[in-house]
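To the structural biology subgroup,

Please find below the input and predicted structure for Small ribosomal subunit biogenesis GTPase RsgA, which we are adding to the shared reference set this quarter. The sequence is reproduced verbatim from the submission form. If anyone notices a discrepancy with their own records, reply to this email rather than editing the shared folder directly, so we keep one authoritative version.
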Amino acid sequence: MNNEFKATIDLNFYGWNNMLDQLKQESEYKVLPHGRVSIVHRTCYEVISGNGLFQCELAGNMIYGKPDFELPCTGDWVIFQPFDGNKGIIVGMLPRERTLCRRKSGTVADKQVIASYVDKAFIVQSLDDNFNVRRAERLMIQILAENIRPVLVLNKADLDFDERKVKKQLGHIARQMPVFFTSVLYPGKILKLRESIAEGETVVFVGSSGVGKSSLVNALCEKSLLLTSGISQSTGKGRHTSTRREMVLMEGSGILIDTPGVREFGLAVGNPGSVNEILDLSDYAESCRFKDCGHISEPGCAVLKAVQDGIIERKVYESYLKLRREALLFSSSEHEKRRRDKSFSKIVEEVKRHKANP
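Predicted structure (tokenized):
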């Protein structure tokens, strides 16, 4: 989004509403302009405001007073002090909602923010060897945990694939989210996907590299807004293009956020029990003999019986065990991290009081 806006921008198209306005009125910076972060660079933020596009940096109290997780991300609503034409200093943020995140690579309990104020998340996979039901389950669990609506977008439907086989593999999660088969070569399929996005809705695209996320965004907007690459001659797959999270506006409709491809998506779920519900095992779990049944080897386990009887696919059950273990590990580690942070905060406060009253 490199073009500068010269006309006044209606931020309602970007998701601004009465609730956000009320939150701003409670801020100490309520007299300053606000805007939405469209792109995050290494040290600079592009912010769309009612008066145009501003290149903003962070105020010192934000840089040194907040952990990385709490710094602005694409989709955040911020308050800034403008200066020198189209430049500004971000001095505050409105409280986040519907924040899509994942476990930060190489950590146990740290989160990495992907986008905020998200209404829907399009899980994009391509109908080649990228199609992976287990990965779709993982993403769906994280998305639903954030009160965001998941949508599975199976792209490159122009390829040769067995649609009936694919739908059968998705049977246990298709009840949790709609599934679209798309291709930029088939305008009718793109139209159906476009019609699923309401005016003012924010949709984030997540998935592996080369599945065609940027091409889908361009097709939905009916113009080339994001860079795309062709097919790699060596692998026959789409090549990774997006290197940052970028927000674009669909004319007369919603807001789309493209994201770089990720190889791994670690769960950052605070409630391990949600894995039961999302993978449609709750009804069976309620019939177990023991309320705290772990569904591993306990007698009278209705989940195990459903697996043995072929009602629950063994692959789904094994995926459930893996995802639940991961969610439990994150939850317990996050709890321990919060306990340590709380203890450290108490020590800091005691030191401050001691200095003030020696």
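Summary notes: Residues 1-5, 230-240 have pLDDT under 50 and may be disordered. The domain at 11-93 is CATH 2.40.50.140 (OB fold (Dihydrolipoamide Acetyltransferase, E2P)).

Regards,
Lab coordination
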